Amino acid sequence: MAKNLNDVLAALPPKRRAKVEQRAGELATLKDLRLAVEHTQQDLAASLGVGQDTISRIEHRSDLLLSTLRRYIQAMGGELDLVARFPNRPPVLLDHIAQKPAAKVRAASTKPAGTRGKAIA
User: Fold this and answer.
1) Which of 14, 22, 73, 77 sits a CA distance of 20 to 30 A from 30?
2) For 21-46, how does the pLDDT look when each residue is reduced to its tens digit (9 = 90+)?
3) β-sheet bridge partners, residue 119
4) Which pTM does this prediction carry?
C-alpha cells in the first residue's frame, strides 16, 4: 500500500525534509519527483502492479493521460490536484477528473448547472 507523502516527510529529520521540500519546488520531470521522495522505478512498479519498464516509459513520455499521472503520483503517496486559472477569477479546482467514477447515486443535484468545479482560494 502506498504511503502518504505528508507522513513520509514528517518522519524525516528537519534538515532532510527542508532539502526535499526545496528540491520539490525545482523539479522538472517525473523522474526528479520520484528521486526526491526516494522511490525506485521498481518500488512504483510494485505499487502499481506493472513492470519496471512501464514506469520508465511513463517517465520518458512528453504527453500522458491524467489518470496515468494521478496513479503515478498516488503510488508515491502524493495527491494530484488540477487547477484552472483565469484572469480576474479565482482558481478552480477540477475534481473528479481522471478518477474512476464512484457508484452513481440517484439524487437531485444541489449545484446549479455549470458549477461542477470548486473555486479555491
Assistant:
1) 14
2) 887 777 678 998 899 889 999 999 99
3) 92
4) 0.60
Element (DSSP H or E) covering residue 70: helix 66-75
C-alpha cell at 16: 532532510
> Given strand 83-84, what is the order of strands in its sheet?
83-84, 92-93, 118-119
**What CATH architecture applies to the domain 5-75?**
Orthogonal Bundle (1.10)
- Name the residue among 64, 29, 67 with its Cα closest to residue 48: 67
Q: Which amino acid is at 68?
A: T
Spell out the domain ranges in the chain: 5-75
Question: Could you tell me if 99 and 74 are in contact, meaning their C-beta atoms sit under 8 angstroms apart?
Answer: no
Main-chain dihedrals φ then ψ at residue 37, nearest 5 degrees: -95, 10
